[in-house]
Input
Amino acid sequence: MTGVICGTGACVPDRVLDNNEIAQFVDTSDQWIQERTGVARRRIAVEETTSSMAAEAGRQAIEEAGVKPEEIDMILAATATPDHIFPCAACEIQEKLQAVNAVCFDLNAACSGFLFAYQTAQAYIAAGIYSTILVVGSECLSRVVDWEDRGTCILFGDGSGAALLKAAEGRNWISAAHSDGKGGPALLCRGLNVTEGEKTGNLPGDSSGEETAAGNGRNYISMDGKAVFQFAVRKVPEVIREVLDANELSEEDIDWFILHQANKRIVESVAKRLKTDMARFPMNLQEYGNTSSASIPILLNEMNRKGLLKKGQKLVLAGFGAGLSWGAAVLEWGK
Ligand code: UT7
Output
């Protein structure tokens, strides 16, 4: 058995933040941001939360698939910005959707999160464990962006996307995923910020001073942009070739390459290295910026709703980001 995407959904916050507005609080310009990244504007959560957007995206996906909430066996939420450490976002989504029979957990692989969650869902389906799985990527990155750092605050945005997979007879495509913890410092968000060897215990009297594990100040994204850029343009074409070879396909067999939406120049460089026409690399990062685990399903949903995805077309999904982590999957559009 294989998992076929039978429905998609997406939800982004109402608040639009354009480049000119960012240029009012950091030293940058619309021209610089558009030329270096392709981003024109992004959405910022005000009242929306990671789980509220995910539930709305999920609701659309299950409605399109014609599935009742109680028929969902599993909810996998890819997120690096859950509303709470626990309960997990997937349980909060379950409650909002009344998907009472689903087993729920989160998966954090940063910008590779949706891709890794999709692969996890496929593995459960191939093993015959579950047959109806909701996969969601959802982020409120604006809450961990340093709005004084022009090197990162221009890039990110908030949003959520979802896909409903149902088990069906069909080919099990081989996918690929990789991680390299050595590259971790290149893209970091500290969270509880526990550092090995430092006194960060949170018992009264245990901490090294005024800083404690849970409250040691800035909890923002920091990034070596150049290092991440170089990693992406090298590893993404490599992993796409890896999955094409594994499935005995060539670039020409693929109708759409749906890449994580981080930077227009990364997408263009991947297309060039694969010697493939840019028209098969759709982008919507100009509207939403980098929404991490949500970017692939938001784009997938947009293409689905515009009627651009036809039954039998072959797609490659490719994610990359913090970890470092990267991967790709082939799928046949089955709706
Ligand atoms: O999901 C994965 C997440 N991360 C990524 O995909 C990020 C990958 N990296 C990138 O997208 C790019 O590295 C950036 C867009 C972040 C930066 O672009 P770049 O072409 O690598 O610029 P740079 O860091 O080499 O900086 C070039 C210049 C520097 O000035 P000097 O030293 O040449 O005088 C920066 O200080 O641009 C300056 N700069 C800016 N100027 C205006 C950096 N950020 C800005 C800014 N506005 N926002």
Remarks:
- The CA atoms of residues 244 and 250 lie 6 Å apart.
- The radius of gyration is 19 Å.
- Confidence is low (pLDDT under 50) at residues 212-216.
